[in-house]
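for the writeup, i need someone to sanity check this before i put it in the appendix. the sequnce is what the collaborator sent (i think, or maybe the updated version? ugh). structure was predicted straight from it, no edits. if anything looks off just tell me and ill rerun, i have time this weekend
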Amino acid sequence: MDWLLKLAFDQLVERGSLIVRAPSGRTLTFGNGQGAPVAIRFADRRAALALVLDPDLKLGELYMDGRLVVEQGGIYEFLELVHDQPAGLKKPLLGRLLDRARLALRWLSHSNGAARSRKNVAHHYDLDGRLYDLFLDSDRQYSCAYYESPEATLEEAQSAKRRHIAAKLVVRPGDRVLDIGCGWGGLGLYLAGTAGAGEVLGVTLSEEQFATAQRRAREAGLADAVRFELRDYRAVEGRFDRIVSVGMFEHVGLHNQRTFFDKCKSLLTEDGVMLLHTIGLSDGPWFTNPWIDKYIFPGGHLPALSELLPWIEKSGLVLTDVEILRLHYASTLRDWRERFMARRDEAVKLYDERFCRMWEFYLAGCEAAFRWRNVVVFQLQLARRQDAAPLTRNYIEQAEDALRRAEADAGRAVRPEGRRLASV
């Protein structure tokens, strides 16, 4: 077994300092010795073999089950060391063959019909809401934030994200807006309460998010302007001046990408504008990480632009703007991970130790993927007509400035104890 571990890690680690304590009791070292050392230990021979045979699935499982123990550093430091290696290092041959098989078979696991979509969403988003309060911002924005400066806090970056999206939507007073995958309602409430939309419909498949969004609309006094429904996007009817979807397209699945864009085209008014914010891959199509698919986001898929553009073109929508948010999600996940770890004991009380190791691995692994691999966020502005959005991009900054002023005005209309003044 020791020789298998040596063969595998020799091909993965060239720099840094990795110490591996094998089940035999032998200590193996890898890398050039630079930097803070990271030490891991395998609890049994089968754990070591499992990692060598299928690291994409088994690394997370072994960490969750306590069969791979990080004795020096933490799981994030281990992932950092493994990911932050010189270009050109390859997985062992068996791993590369497994990758090819998963890529060839990925179409078999992405038939997300209405019933399966609801089940997949419930798996993640219908967890105890107190879990999300441990690490999200106060608005419960569960998607990539927008860091206007490296010093920005999570709260500031999520506020900037809302502004950035609203600006790109070019929201006009009275516009009817559809929010596909509305989460806990924060963006919809912002579009109506600050950006000036006349009517917002938010749809979700999560019962927990739906209940929270409805309550928030009532508490904000916006129940007449913002409506939330427990509904699949494919069942939405009507016409909307603006459509926004943030962090939902990843759950659509390979088979339904064309359906999604065709449906959005049918819902968008002739002069309408749509903003799609989705995680994606910067270097071409690939399969979903099997551990993420099994434990975190079943049925999920991260698209490459080369997968999206043909369906956009076939739908008749016009791509009017593309922005790639590269390291913004890495910073978001860093903040989530640090906040979660600071309150980890509370999470253990909500669930158990195994769940918390799973969640820690999820946040650390995703941060590593955004920081050192090919995972980014696409913001695609779409329309039915070429002239639906302004022709120069300075309108985005101008709209963001106007939204900042509106936010400041709203803040001045709140008493120190937090009770809003009646308008006069």
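The first helix runs from residue 2 to 12. DSSP finds 17 helices and eleven strands in the chain.
thx in advance!!
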